[in-house]
Write a structure and sequence with these properties.
43% of the residues lie in helices and 15% in strands. It is of the alpha+beta class and 1464 residues long. Strands 25-26-27-28-1-31-30-29 form an eight-stranded mixed β-sheet. The chain has a six-stranded mixed β-sheet with strand order 3-4-5-6-2-32, with no helix packed on it. The chain has a four-stranded antiparallel β-sheet with strand order 7-8-9-10, with no helix packed on it.
Length: 1464
């Protein structure tokens, strides 16, 4: 059967997204050039046309990856990328628009040159090193400003080679720029300009006809032999169809005929030909060079251009065809001696008419590869390729002879019209889901198209909203994926209206409006995609492969396999050679034709229901054979809707086939065929010389030489895989349509003509087996790539869904002015596909299938994939077990890649054997449907025994996918399931299967790991009693000890102290205590959770060990005292510390007082102490420091110990009071930063004094055992100061008296101050301290003002208790009169006491010592008085002496009385 061809293409945005392109800005030496103001440079990335190329070329060089050059961004940027390697794409922006056509050319020094000319008159040479190109750095930019002409005169550019450039001018002339290479180097000198005129200066053979029309001389096409092939001339075509030959001047020209008739007639006139369109076009192709010449020098020397053929395309606007081709040969060089100018002639060789189907079409490009002419036509915005072989021996061919044009087009795609949507909605599924599946189907719309359409849709809605209204929430919401964004935004403004009269919701109007909204969005997508698919040019890749270059797609021509060819024959029927098939193929095609008639004669709605019935019933778990089910479907959905005439037609055609079942088998063979129609001939690169390369690849659209890229580049590239996925999608779609038609026909025949189908197994079962396999493959091809879960997806080459922020994308689109030669805006990224590609592409890029084929042929790669997955390799009725293994293996591959929804969908087609149940169990597990997964895992467990798998029908499939090694016993299976639940942290079922695994361990294998997992599962679930039971039941002592430590720790962490203390831990109590003690000692943050000291304290308290409990809390308190803390956290820390001290005190209070102490280790401190000479030396100090963290003696070696110090209960109480005082001070005065300094007892009292808190100061001094002298000294000074003040100053100074207890007292502030001092002394100054506080008060009063009057109550106190001290203080402060008076008073008091005082019953002194007087003080007073005599002092001295004398007489008398009383 003759072969046919098709076109396949992949979107550029499938290779890389525009936001991934590395941006480079090129500077210019011309200062008057303004910066580019294109929309994209301003951040308007919503306009997809800016990313659609206006010029595309394909570059291929030997042992190098293929490159694609695209002119984008309103002709201001060049986008370079690779279709066959992972070189990151780059966008190079120039200061002004680029004139056509920028070109990549190779250089002999392992470089590639990009030559660009801008409208500003700058010629740029960008030199890229090979093979890194622009991605590895080290490339350079050279700018040359054209001087001969202005930039606005330049219309087009053609690069002959790296050293020669031709620029067409608006006057029809050509500017030649030549650069000379420096010897032996890759560096070129500056360009040399030479302007060449279009006039040849000859008359004969080159005369012009008629008067020139405006613009007739404008050059619209260039041509030359691609570099580095030998040539010395170039060719141009002007709008007046003048073909010119250029060297250093115009050396020849000829007027090309304007019609095929003129070209066929040698006498036809060409004077009235219409002008060609003004746009640059590809009208010229220079055919292969003369064999044997490989260098330019040889070409110049041997005149290699003589006889060279030039093929010209001439467009003809007629209804017959799109134009014709005419070939000229270049004559030998002739030199005119008169004008000293070289000239050459152009001789017509042959003409070739285009096919009639090209009428009304526009030729976009053509190339000649291996003597095959390939033409790219624009058919209303879609690409069409025709090809025809060229016969070099028939130079006078006048139309192609018996040769026929071969056709290659893209496959039929739905038109996405309202009628098509109505057809889709006939089936099942929600409205939004059906439409989303349609627009996200791989290959229909690119991601760039969908992004642009949803941006435009959103902007159009916002533009209709007034500024006073807020947009719908769906428009401003954030969406994780592009699909969710489309589903959320489209139709968000449609609301269900309510009938004002009946109150009924108008759902019909709602669905109609919603459908119109979606149709409008799809119309936007269709319009943008139509612009993206506009054909641009042809390229030539490896092995002479023709490359189709569109604005946003790159494609190729492929040979159809047998199912594709059969589908074209059945669908179109007018393909050449359709009737030439014979044998089995012919019978199969006849069956397909019958099936087509039957299928087309069923109404659309009923046909949709019929096909859906086959799909639905095929996915159900059938209790009957499909033959019975298929016949039931035929009776219900098919036979009643078939006309009698159609039935008769089918009966006649089936009768003609004789063996209808054999013909059905032949049709099935066509559907399942996996052999290519044409064996691809792989070019042996080692057997090719350079001439062979030139002859095999004479030209391409970019004007470069062609050779094989390395196989490594091809295998790693995404583009071939995308094309392979597209080919598989096309052939699977064709096979599916053929199989559906065949299934309908066979079901109909078996129901209506059962006598025609009698074999076993039935033909219906065999057809359905194939239909089932194709349905699975169709799912892979049509389902877009979802966003795989990060925890399960392992596809490195497949992109995740759209998560690009809109604002970030706009910033990436901005262009900034540069200062240097070039600047870059972002690091390059790899070419990872970002479009909504299919699951099929994900499989092709996965490790399971990526290495199946090393072939360059797309069809061969596609068939290798179909053969590898084996779905079409064998019939289920031939090998049921094999097919189950194939299906399960595919499901497991998809699950392993993370495409869980696809696994679930394909699982509907697979029988529920143990292997499929296992895969579905893991799928449901990853989807979070735990209950369903557990049920399936339990089902699969029935296939395992204690010694291995049972002999069940699904054993082979299960062995194929089980990830654990043999033996496949129940213990190993449960252990594997435990690992699955452990990975996903489903601990409830981890515990379940861990227990089952332990119970099923009959082979006595080590289950230590399972016991540990069981324990961890219980702990994760918070089941600590079960965890404790597991620990105590663990049969491994080492693991048991470790788990005891872990359990104690984790229960402390979770605050389960009430359970921890109740657990006995028989045999492991010491281990629990050691664990908690270690944690408590080595806690880096004693305030953090958990509090291990508290846990250990509770443990000891629960077991009655109060002494250890107290010691634990005391150590915790000491740790807290050494813990650094911020001032604002000191109160919390001190509160915890005080509670620890209090807990320690309470615990030790329950111990016998003899044992209420704690032993703690200490260490001696070594400190630096300065010597008398000023130097420092180390001394051993006696001060010892308590250690809060230490190693217990039990853990030390024998003979190793530490010095201990005993801390008694009283010591702890004192430390507790100190902490409380600090805490009280911090709470009352937070601005003092108490936590910043470790203040002592005296400092605490001083802080209270400074803040006039005398009551608190006295209380702190009392509790901390600090002398109160400083308090009373300060208080006395304040009282004296108040006594000296008058008026308002007293109230201000007496503010310290405004606290509870004093401010309610009566009297003036002075009176209240002295009264407060008196009361304080009475409470705190006792004989135990020898009344030192009152002494301090007395001294302070005298220090402040000795002339002031002492308080009466103070004088009376001293006269009664310390008269001697009072007299001495008076003498000290020169108060002689007061000293004499106090002395007299003292003597009188003694005399009075000796008489019994005022009590008549009081007995006199019993001993002489009871009447002691300070005689030495009296003598001192009298002596000083005599030295300072005044009348008052003299009188007081006399009085004192008199009283002393009287007392002496009285004393002798008392002595005698006491003596006589004692003698009695």
């Amino acid at each position: 059967m003759p072969s046919t061809q098709s076109l396949l293409a992949a979107h550029i945005s499938s290779l890389y997204h525009p936001s991934q392109v590395h941006s480079i800005t090129i500077a210019t030496a011309q200062r008057h050039i303004p910066l580019s103001s294109s929309s994209l440079a301003q951040g308007n990335s919503n306009d997809a046309s800016l990313h659609h190329a206006s010029h595309v070329s394909y570059y291929t060089a030997r042992e190098q990856p293929s490159l694609i050059l695209r002119l984008v961004n309103d002709n201001t940027s060049i986008e370079l990328s690779s279709a066959t390697s992972h070189i990151p794409p780059v966008e190079i922006t120039f200061p002004s628009p680029i004139i056509p056509n920028p070109t990549l050319v190779p250089d002999q020094y392992s470089e590639t040159h990009l030559i660009v000319c801008t409208k500003a008159g700058s010629l740029y040479r960008l030199v890229f090193p090979v093979p890194a190109f622009w991605s590895g750095g080290g490339w350079e930019v050279q700018e040359y400003v054209v001087k001969t002409v202005q930039g606005d005169m330049m219309a087009g550019m053609h690069v002959v080679d790296a050293s020669e450039v031709l620029i067409s001018l608006s006057d029809g002339n050509v500017l030649k720029l030549k650069a000379t290479r420096q010897d032996g180097r890759s560096v070129f000198e500056d360009w040399k300009e030479h302007k060449m005129s279009a006039s040849t200066g000859l008359v004969s053979g080159f005369s012009l006809f008629g008067q020139r029309q405006p613009g007739s001389s404008d050059i619209v096409s260039f041509g030359s032999i691609p570099s580095p092939a030998p040539t010395s001339v170039a060719y141009t075509m002007s709008r007046d169809r003048q073909l010119r030959v250029w060297k250093n001047a115009c050396i020849g020209s000829v007027r090309v005929p304007s019609s095929f008739e003129q070209a066929s007639s040698s006498n036809a006139s060409t004077s009235s030909a219409p002008l060609l369109p003004p746009a640059q076009a590809n009208y010229i192709r220079v055919l292969s060079p003369v064999p044997g010449l490989t260098t330019r020098a040889q070409a110049d020397e041997l005149d290699a251009d003589t006889g060279r053929r030039v093929m010209i395309f001439v467009p003809t606007p007629t209804d017959e065809n799109g134009g014709f081709f005419i070939t000229y040969s270049l004559g030998a060089e002739v030199t005119d001696v008169l004008v000293r100018r070289e000239s050459r002639s152009l001789v017509k060789q042959s003409i070739l008419s285009c096919s009639p189907r090209t009428a009304g079409m526009e030729l976009r490009d053509f190339v000649v590869v291996d003597d095959m002419l390939w033409c790219l036509w624009d058919t209303h915005g879609r690409s069409m390729v025709e090809s025809i072989p060229l016969d070099e021996d028939d130079d006078e061919d006048e139309g192609g002879g018996g040769r026929a044009w071969s056709l290659a087009t893209f496959g039929v795609e739905p038109d996405y019209s309202p009628a098509y949507f109505d057809q889709l909605l006939i089936g099942t599924g929600s409205f939004t889901d059906v439409l989303m599946d349609a627009i996200l189907r791989p290959g229909i719309f690119s991601k760039l198209t969908l992004e642009t359409a949803i941006h435009q849709y959103r902007d159009s809605i916002i533009s209709t909203i007034s500024s006073s209204s807020s947009p719908p929430p769906a428009l401003i919401a954030s969406y994780p994926t592009l699909s969710e964004r489309i589903a959320g935004i489209v139709g968000c403004t449609v609301e269900c209206a309510v009938d004002l009269q009946t109150g009924e919701q108008l759902w019909d109007q709602y669905w109609a409006a919603l459908k119109r909204d979606w149709e409008g969005f799809v119309a936007r997508c269709t319009e943008i995609e139509r612009s993206a698919r506009w054909p641009i040019a042809l390229g030539v890749g490896d092995n002479g492969r023709v490359i189709i270059l569109e604005r946003e797609r790159v494609g190729t021509v492929v040979v159809d396999d047998e199912p594709l060819h059969a589908a074209k024959l059945v669908l179109f029927g007018n393909i050449p050679g359709a009737g030439e098939a014979s044998g089995e193929v012919a019978l199969g095609l006849k069956v397909f034709e019958i099936a087509k008639v039957l299928r087309e004669n069923v109404e659309l709605k009923e046909r949709m229901h019929l096909e859906q019935a086959f799909l639905d019933r095929g996915q159900e778990l059938l209790a009957f054979s499909f033959e019975e089910v298929g016949l039931d479907i035929a009776r219900t959905h098919l036979v009643p809707f078939v006309d009698d005439n159609v039935t008769d037609y089918i009966a006649d055609r089936v009768e003609l086939l004789v063996d209808f079942e054999g013909a059905v088998a032949d049709a099935l063979n066509i559907i399942r065929d996996l052999e290519p129609l044409v064996k691809p001939e792989v070019l042996d690169e080692q057997d090719m010389d350079e001439d062979d390369v030139f002859r095999s690849h004479p030209s391409n659209s970019s004007g470069t030489t062609l050779a094989l890229p390395s196989q490594d580049h091809w295998e790693k590239a995404h583009w071939p895989k995308l094309l392979t996925a597209a080919y598989i999608g096309s052939t699977v779609a064709a096979r599916y349509e053929l199989c559906m038609s065949l299934l309908i026909l066979v079901a109909f025949v078996m129901e209506v003509f059962p006598e025609k189908m009698t074999s076993e197994p039935s033909a219906l079962d065999r057809v359905f087996d194939t239909f089932k396999s194709l349905s699975i493959l169709r799912t892979l091809c049509q389902r877009p790539l979802p966003s795989p879960d990060a925890s399960s997806a392992r596809v490195q080459d497949v992109a995740a869904a759209d998560q690009e922020d809109e604002m970030l994308s706009r910033f990436k689109g901005m262009r900034m002015a540069s200062v240097g030669a070039h600047t870059s805006s972002a690091p390059p990224t790899d070419g990872t596909p970002r479009a909504p590609i299919s699951l099929l592409h994900a499989l092709l890029t996965s490790p399971h299938f990526s290495s199946l084929s090393t072939a360059f042929n797309v069809q061969e790669r596609a068939h290798n994939f179909l053969q590898a997955n084996s779905l079409l390799k064998s019939s289920r009725h031939q090998d049921v077990e094999f097919m189950e293994v194939v299906e399960v293996r595919l499901m497991e591959d998809l699950r392993d890649l993370g495409f869980l929804e696809a696994v679930r969908e394909i699982g509907l087609w697979v029988s529920e054997g143990p292997a499929a149940s296992y895969v579905m169990a893991r799928t449901w597990l990853q989807l979070g449907r735990i209950e369903v997964a557990v049920g399936l895992f339990d089902v699969v467990a029935g296939s395992f025994g204690d010694r291995g798998l049972y002999e069940t029908p699904g054993k082979t499939g299960l062995v194929e996918i089980l990830p654990f090694p043999e033996p496949f016993d129940l213990y190993g299976y449960y252990q594997h399931v435990v690992e699955l639940f452990e990975e996903l942290f489903f601990n409830e079922y981890l515990v379940k299967y861990a227990k089952l695994a332990i119970d099923s361990n009959v082979s006595e294998q080590s289950s230590e790991l399972l016991w540990e997992k069981l324990y961890h599962g219980y702990v994760a679930l918070g089941l600590y009693e079960e965890a404790y039971t597991t620990v105590m039941a663990t049969p491994y002592p080492g693991l048991q000890t470790e788990l005891v430590r872990k359990l104690a720790t984790v229960m402390c962490d979770q605050g389960e102290l009430h359970l921890l203390t109740r657990f006995n831990f028989v045999g492991h109590q010491a281990e629990v205590e050691r664990t908690l003690a270690f944690k408590a000692r080595n806690s880096t943050n004693p305030t953090a959770w958990p509090d291990y000291s508290k846990a250990l304290y509770s443990w000891y308290i629960f077991r009655g060990d109060y002494r250890k409990a107290g010691g634990t809390m005391y150590l915790q308190a000491k740790q807290l005292s050494e813990f650094p803390v911020a001032p604002d956290q000191y109160i919390d820390l001190a509160t915890v510390q005080a509670r620890c001290y209090l807990a320690a005190i309470n615990a030790l209070s329950l111990v016998d007082p003899k044992n209420a102490w704690i032993p703690l280790p200490v260490e001696e401190e070594v400190a630096q102490q300065p010597s008398a000479s000023g130097s420092s030396r180390k001394i051993q100090r006696k001060r010892k420091k308590l250690l809060c963290s230490f190693i217990p003696y039990d853990n030390l070696s024998k003979g190793v110990g530490q010095e201990l110090e005993v801390v008694e209960l009283s010591d702890i109480r004192q430390e507790y009071m100190l902490v409380l005082s600090r805490l009280s001070l911090a709470v009352r005065y937070p601005d003092h930063d108490i936590g910043k300094f470790l203040i002592g007892p005296i400092d605490i009292v001083s802080r209270y004094i400074q803040n006039n808190a005398f009551d608190e100061a006295m209380g702190a001094a009392r509790s901390l055992d600090v002398p109160m002298t400083a308090i009373f000294e300060n208080l006395t000074s304040r009282c004296v100061a108040l006594s000296k003040m008058r008026g308002i100053d007293i109230e201000e100074e007496a503010s310290w008296l405004l606290f509870d207890g004093i401010k309610s007292w009566e009297g003036t502030p002075v009176t209240r101050a002295w009264r407060y001092l008196q009361a304080s002394l009475e409470r705190n100054d006792t004989a135990e301290t020898d009344f030192e506080c009152r002494k301090v008060v007395l001294k302070r009063i005298l220090d402040e003002d000795r002339a002031s009057r002492l308080p009466v109550w103070l004088v009376q106190f001293f006269e009664e208790h310390q008269p001697e001290h009072l007299i001495r203080m008076c003498v000290k402060y020169d108060l002689l009169e007061d000293a004499l008076r106090h002395s007299i008073t003292l003597v009188k008091q003694v005399q009075w006491k000796s008489r019994g005082g005022d009590s008549a019953s009081r007995e006199p002194f019993k001993t002489a010592a009871a009447a002691w007087l300070p005689y030495a003080v009296f003598d001192q007073v009298l002596v000083i008085a005599k030295q300072n005599r005044t009348p008052m002092i003299d009188g007081l001295c006399v009085e004192l002496q008199k009283e002393l004398d009287t007392w002496m007489v009285r004393a002798r008398k008392l002595g005698e009385e006491i003596k006589s009383r004692l003698m009695k």
